[in-house]
Amino acid sequence: MRLLSHLRRLIWPSVLLLVAASLVIFDQDVERRIGMSLRLSGGVAGCLAAAWLGSRMFGLFADRRRRDKRPYPRLFRDLVAVLLFFAAIVASAALLLEQGLLGGGCCVNLRFPPALGSGLIANK
Prior knowledge:
The chain is mainly alpha-helical. It is built from 5 helices and 2 strands; from the N terminus they run αααααββ. The protein has helices spanning 2-9, 11-25, 27-34, 39-64, 74-96, and strands at residues 109-111, 121-123. It has a two-stranded antiparallel ribbon with strand order 1-2. α2 (11-25) runs antiparallel to α4 and α4 packs antiparallel against α5 (74-96). It is elongated and about 55 Å long.
């Protein structure tokens, strides 16, 4: 019975994640029907839904994984949830600003030369 109540808590985050993924996957069809692209909003909703689902799944894991019938502290579960949502907000901002997580020009581009195949050459 307890497992059923936990699985019930996973329904809405899973539904939101599926809707967001379908907005990203079927972007061109949605754009043809309503006249505007929902790719970015689907990506942001997907990031937040993944954080929500991860938070709920960790809560399920923390409640099921008990030693000596002592649950994980509530503060630890809340800290994991905060870290997941912080990562989702940073990923959403990077998506909206069309940047990588490390920025646009600070990374070194690595490429494989066609003749050598196994060596790395760093380009700036």
